[in-house]
Write a structure and sequence with these properties.
Radius of gyration: 19 Å
Structural class: alpha/beta
Shape: globular
Oligomer: single chain
Mean pLDDT: 92
Bound molecules: zinc ion
Order of helices and strands: HHEEEHHEHHEEHEEHE
Number of helices: 8
Number of strands: 9
Strand content: 15-25%
Low-confidence stretches: none
Helix content: 25-40%
Number of domains: 2
Strand order of the largest sheet: 2-1-3-9-8-4-5
CATH topology of the largest domain: Rossmann fold
CATH architecture of the largest domain: 3-Layer(aba) Sandwich
């Protein structure tokens, strides 16, 4: 029976070879990302303060901003091949890369992220109609995997999108702030100052995470940091 299964699996692999999401070549592992592509990721390794737009030392407080620190923990620069993989993860229904990304992010930043003693991991929500069409929210898929690795609870129902707007990536940088203005609403006011870490797939100017943080803080929560797969400049 085992031999038979193995035979069928080999046959399936032959007919439908697994291709890497980054380069489209045959992929030797079950992560859908080949070793060659992974070696080409431009890793970041340091937190970046979205408030003053500088890399921070290996600490959770920015030397320049102190209590205004808004730290972003990104795994890699938003450049190919990770860019291509994220596009497939977001739009093509392929959620397998979340596992690898969560593991790599956690391996890089676990020490720093655990220092916040955060209560919740909060994925940046999609508008309901967009999530229904796509079948999932990529930020939630990533947050769930990060929640399994860390001791921080996943909270997907804290914040939602009130209105559907154009995707930020399709707009000029100058138009992005206005596009995301007042787009989020918080489900319930906090009865204590819960600490939240926001999760998104790609952070560019930070307008989206600043807006989500503003709404959460207006409702009594504290947003202590942001985690993303990639950082686009
Ligand atoms: Zn590849
Ligand atoms: Zn700073």
């Amino acid at each position: 029976m085992i031999l038979e299964n193995e035979y069928i699996q080999n046959l399936l692999d032959f007919i439908f070879p697994k291709l890497c999401l980054g380069c489209g070549e045959y992929c030797e592992n079950d992560k859908d990302i080949c070793g060659n592509c992974e070696r080409r990721f431009q890793l970041i390794k340091l937190p970046y303060c979205l408030h003053c737009m500088n890399y921070m030392n290996d600490e959770i407080v920015c030397e320049i901003c102190s209590d205004k620190t808004f730290a972003l923990y990104s795994y890699a620069n938003y450049a190919d091949p990770i860019r291509e993989i994220i596009i497939q993860f977001k739009f093509k229904g392929i959620t397998t890369p979340a596992d690898l990304f969560a593991k790599r992010i956690y391996a890089l930043y676990a020490n720093l992220l655990e220092k916040y003693n955060a209560d919740f991991l909060v994925p940046i929500p999609l508008h309901n109609s967009r999530e229904n069409k796509r079948g999932y929210n990529q930020a939630s898929v990533l947050a769930k995997k990060l929640g399994e690795l860390s001791s921080i609870e996943l909270n997907e129902s804290l914040i939602f999108r009130t209105t559907k707007r154009k995707p930020q990536a399709r707009l000029a940088v100058s138009e992005r702030k206005k596009n995301i203005d007042s787009v989020f609403q918080v489900e319930q006011k906090a009865d204590e100052k819960y600490k939240c870490i926001l999760i998104d797939d790609v952070v560019t100017t930070g307008n989206t995470v600043f807006e989500a943080a503003k709404e959460l803080e207006n409702s009594g929560y504290r947003v202590v940091a942001v985690v993303s797969i990639a950082h686009a400049f």
